Amino acid sequence: MPESTRTPHLPYGVLPPAFRLPEAAHPGTVHLQVSDLQRSLAYYEQVLGLSVRNVADPSAVLSADGDEHPLLTLHTRAGVTPARRGALVSITLQSCYRTVAPGAAFAAHLGALDVRVAMADHLVSEALYLWDPVGLGIEVYADRPRDTWQHRDRELAMTTDLLDIQSVIAAGRGEAWTGRPSRHVDGAHPSARWKPVGEAEAFYHRALGFDKTVWSCPGALFVSAGGYHHHLATNVWSSGPSAATHEARLIEWELVPTDADVDGAAQNLREVGYRIGKTGDGISAKDAWGTRVRVRTKH
Question: How far apart are CA 230 and CA 221, in angstroms?
Fold first, then answer.
């Protein structure tokens, strides 16, 4: 990594990057490598309620109900092994389940399936955590109203408290889960681990143009565009090397800003010192984990 990208960790708003992603920027398709395509398809359909748009073995495309845009693309090949413990990548499905009480019907659905689940109250959201058949982590959460989010010296207040799941379910007043996420899903948010936070800051904040939202938690950094709580979270809490090419892993994720900002992101990445590639509708670059981030137009 070039020396020009190794910047110190500075508070939000101090020496901002030359280019900042617009508020309209949001994650697009996430590409995962799995070991058994049909097994993973069954999980994402039955447990998460995603719709299969296309299957062309060894790949398959899934989306939210009523949405023509791909949310997940699953890939497999011979010899892929499950994700190692400590090498998990959390794929976050934001605000998928819009019911009377967000998440209530989905939580009841998971209980009926006897799916192993963890949960947390993050102040800004109520989150449920699951693990797919190859061990990749999934966070499904519902945001609390944005005007209830709290800040301390411009840093967003987030925590990991116990979630009162019984109250969440009760607030749903028995509304049944429809089996399909809302069409309002705007993408899957990846969470990366293992590398020093400074390297994440160099790429995602300084070069790509995300704003920092949470930075004082030791070993973690949360970034977003437009004041959202986070579009990506990085931390060093899990030990071990990045996933090998033969393991279940996050291969690539997409970022969709406005069309004009694709050029701005490309110029800033190049000026900071990162190598970029051209794609049919945008650019791509690799972060410190070797994960490809594709910045593309909306078309």
Answer: 9
What distance in Å separates the CA atoms of residue 65 and residue 62, rounded to the nearest whole number? 9
Q: pLDDT at position 122, please?
A: 93
Task: Find all residues with CB under 8 Å of 128, minimum gap 6, and list them.
Answer: 103, 106, 107, 110, 117, 118, 119, 139, 140, 141
Residue 3 clears pLDDT 70, i.e. is over it: no
- Asked if 128 and 106 touch (Cβ cutoff 8 Å), the reply is yes
**Domains in the chain, please, with CATH?**
3-296 (3.10.180.10)
Which pLDDT score is estimated for 74? Answer: 96
Read off the amino acid at residue 296: R
Per the model's pLDDT, the better-predicted residue between 223 and 190 turns out to be 223
* Amino acid symbol at 88: L
What's the mean pLDDT when you consider all of the chain? 82
pLDDT mean over 86-112: 65
Q: Name which of 68, 26, 70 is nearest 44 in CA terms.
A: 70
